[in-house]
Design brief:
Blueprint: E1 4-6, E2 15-18, E3 21-31, E4 39-46, E5 52-58, E6 62-65, E7 69-78, E8 82-87, E9 93-97, H1 98-105, E10 113-119, E11 122-127, E12 131-139, E13 153-158, E14 163-167, E15 175-179, E16 185-188
Antiparallel strand pairs: 1-6, 2-3, 2-6, 3-4, 4-5, 7-8, 7-10, 8-9, 10-11, 12-13, 12-15, 13-14, 15-16
Length: 189
């Protein structure tokens, strides 16, 4: 039997089921006035669709708590339709369709470790680290740093094919650290 959680006890990061949908709390605000019941305004991410929704719950409302399993797997490769991952302990392999991991594939070099999230036997997706290190495959090494007051940047293509803006001093073949939440250059390794 799953845990029943009072909506007032929800906190950011907590996962719950509501009307058959699986959500993770992004933000919650509580409002109590003298004339009305306690209101809980919940901003949550639907873990199946990725959509951010806002819902209103009242004092005494309850939801079903949910537990997610997380398994560290190694990214093997991607073809035109799927990304392939392997459990390094059991050597079991899984495939995820491109439409579910389109953003994440831009930051996955072969043999990179990622966290695969499951709800029971249902595969929800992958969780990237906050930052990843990738090699610059192509950039203009002859670019001239003219305007250094405003942090001059140039285009670069990473080993995964992802295009970013990097500082003028970054050269082809160097490793750079990229933020996976924004896809922006963070620093040089």
């Amino acid at each position: 039997m799953a845990d029943i959680i009072d909506c007032g006890d929800l906190t950011p990061g907590k996962v719950f089921l509501d009307k058959g949908e699986l959500y993770s709390v992004v933000d919650i605000a509580h409002n109590k006035t003298a004339m009305a019941k306690m209101k809980h305004k919940i901003k949550a991410k639907n873990l199946r669709s990725g959509a951010i929704v806002e819902m209103m719950k009242f004092g005494g409302d309850k939801v079903e708590g949910a537990f997610l399993d997380k398994v560290t797997m190694q990214f093997l490769y991607a073809d035109d339709d799927f990304g392939y991952f392997m459990n390094k302990e059991t050597f079991d392999q899984i495939e995820l369709p491109h439409d579910r991991i389109k953003w994440e594939l831009q930051f996955l070099a072969p043999e990179a470790d990622v966290t695969i999230t499951y709800f029971g036997h249902e595969l929800l997706g992958i969780q990237l680290p906050a930052k990843v290190t990738l090699t610059v495959a192509e950039t203009d090494d002859n670019a001239v740093a003219g305007d250094t007051v405003n942090r001059a940047m140039k285009d670069a293509i990473l080993e995964t094919g992802f295009k970013i803006r990097v500082p003028m001093f970054v050269k082809t073949g160097q490793k750079v650290i990229i933020r996976t939440d924004t896809g922006e250059y963070d620093s040089r390794e």
